[in-house]
Amino acid sequence: MAPRSFWKGYLKLSLVTCPVAMVPATTDDEKVRFHTLNRKTGNRVVSQFVDSVSGKPVDEDDEVKGYQRGEDEYVMLEDDEISAVALESTRTIDIEMFVPRESIDWIWYDKPHYLTPDDPVGEEAFSVIRDAMEATGRVGISRLVMYRRERAVMLEPRDRGIVLWTLRYGDEVRDRDAYFGDIKNDKIDSQLMELVKTLIEERKKPWDPKMVDDPVQDRLLEIIAAKKKGKKRPAATKAAEPDQSSNVINIMDALRKSIASEGKSKKR
């Protein structure tokens, strides 16, 4: 069963408007979560804000946001002051512009959401906006208040719906030249290139979501199930340590041995 939408509002392009619903495209509901307990009593431990100097608990009414401007010096901002700077984009996705799909690098993508029509009457308007973006190879850019902050969002047509991506803020993406700029751009030996291509071909497989399964979570569930039944927990498996002594200097020999090993594995 499809999850209930966590946001409802309107998709707007100029004078064309239609009601839409949105739900996160990803979920962590199946992840193993832990509570912190008091080992002696078995009761849950609760967190509490305390004054960093006096050590005394702080009442919720006395909690306020603070922007640090110096050591132990802050500018206090009240909730109404913070709310006053937000735009009124909480319930309408007003598409302000369209850009080529390939012009937005993947590193700007933050969190995906499924956007669907929320009313049969507005389905035609939704569909024509979706199909026009698909036909022109463009994605829509808008702004929307989500997760208590206003964000730039990208609307991408996908199948019969639209995927809405929240985009990272400009100060969240680091300049890649600062990290990649010093890497040498020497010409790669053509023989080495062909050997690596062969190795890639040997390991080629179709995409399968099972490739990103979480083995750690599976192991945790085994331990939890064993403890529920009162059984001894499964023995921990020690990860194999890499062989530090075999520091291969000859890349060509290493690649040839790798390809030979791949071939033997396939025969088996």
UniProtKB/TrEMBL annotation:
GO terms for molecular function: double-stranded DNA binding. One of its GO terms (biological process) is DNA recombination. Keywords: DNA damage, DNA recombination, DNA repair, DNA-binding. It comes from the Bacteria. Pfam families: Ku (PF02735). It comes from Phyllobacterium zundukense. Homodimer. Interacts with LigD. CDD domains: KU_like. InterPro entries: DNA_bd_Ku70/Ku80, Prok_Ku, SPOC-like_C_dom_sf. The gene is ku. Signal peptide: none annotated. Residues 55-184 form the Ku domain. This is Non-homologous end joining protein Ku. With LigD forms a non-homologous end joining (NHEJ) DNA repair enzyme, which repairs dsDNA breaks with reduced fidelity. Binds linear dsDNA with 5'- and 3'- overhangs but not closed circular dsDNA nor ssDNA. Recruits and stimulates the ligase activity of LigD. Belongs to the prokaryotic Ku family. Gene3D superfamilies: 2.40.290.10. SUPFAM superfamilies: SPOC domain-like.
